[in-house]
Amino acid sequence: MDSFFHANRHYIVGAALLATSSVAAYSTYRLLTNEQRRKKKDNKYETEQLVNEYLVFHYGAPEEVLAYSFGPRDALDFPRRVAEEALQALRTTDKSTIPSRALDIGCAVGRTSFELAREFQQVVGIDFSHAFIDACNLLKDHGSLQYSVTDEGDLRTDLTAVVDSSIDRKRCHFQQGDACNLPLDLGQFGCVVAANLICRLPDPMDFLNRVPGLVASGGVLILTTPASWMEEYTPKSKWIGGYKDQYGQRVTTLDSLKRILGPDFTLMDDRGLPMFIRETARRNQWTVPQLSVWRRK
Fold first, then answer.
1. Is the pLDDT assigned to residue 8 strictly greater than 90?
2. Is 101 helix (H, G, I), strand (E, B) or coil?
3. Residues 123, 174: contact at Cβ < 8 Å?
């Protein structure tokens, strides 16, 4: 699940401790070598701050994310609700005809993947960020992970991310990977999820052209996107929405998805799916990504 936090972060160099090694129940984030630090220091997806913000986004209790009696509470637990959309779509499918495998591309710190494991025998989570995948594997191995969030300035609150104990975490496999260059041996899945991913890819078509081969006939594809196209992430020539064509006609992301996916998928549903992101105790984001649910023909 790609980031929609502020892009102008203060980058940190070196490893960040995601958990305290003094507590046996938790593991610690692996230490980076000097070479890894050099390669990752300019990647905001590898910073401790962003990993922590994603952990609270994925696993934070409502009162930890939104500590006020007012606010968009229906936008909380976005990663869990994305998984629920997938599982709901599959309830009208004969599951015996599709693989009991799910793929979560852009899985971030893994909440959607774990939720999909409630009903799928195998879930593969892939993210470009090494730090996110490290966090996923720590949660898989230990079921919980300590982290902290910023309240204001240097004031922080220690929290613990916990995977529901009723979930079989062994069903999940996490690996670092590039959505634009996915491994050729992934096989087919009964469900593919790509949440808030396509408008952060350098070439969305590299991913979208691969999707029909990943979803088995009768399986479902779940996409969400805020369609916040920016040249920082995607060259304008690669945008699939958010512009006017040569005839002056508006081209939206959903219009393009219908054209691109239409030959292989049936659009089952599309609507806004709100999400709430905690940055600090008093600075937050309310965003309404567009959800589209597709069934493979």
1. no
2. strand
3. no
